[in-house]
Predict the 3D structure of the following.
Amino acid sequence: MAETENNETETPGATEAAAPRAEPAEVVPPKERRRRARAAKAAQTKTRQSLTPEERHAERVAERQRKAKARRVERGRSREKARASGASTAQATPPREHGPGRQKTRQGVVVSDKADKTITVRIDVVRRHRRYEKIVRTSSTLHVHDESNDAHTGDTVIVRESRPMSRLKRWRLIQVVERAE
């Protein structure tokens, strides 16, 4: 009986030692992981090969419908967001600058008046990038017809689009807004 008691007393300690420990998860290198994923995908594709063309077409149509529904939901959310932000700022859309029969008008700084009856005007544009919302500054130069040689370097002028007057001149001087000092 002493033996059985001994065995019983040893059993709890023995069971702990004999109990299987949880083995650590298998460590798989990334390349092996990718290879296994490709193999699984290839096996799945082989089972899909047994589908008829009509069944494959039906799958494609269902997938397109699912994606279209997701797009509609996302577009609706973005519209609601835009409406909410637009309503809070209450911005009115400015009238169209030009259209059929209406010439463009620009304001810029004269950078050169050396040519006779012609000035070169730099138009600076400052805008916010649509995606990154960073302020982007760009400029372009226009050759402008100045009939009376009124504008000089450094003046701020308003110019309007016109018929071609030479190879480069397609603008004419409307007004000198501010004279250079």
The first strand starts at residue 105 and ends at 112. The chain has a mean pLDDT of 85. The chain is about 40% helix and 25% strand. The two ends are 118 Å apart (CA to CA).
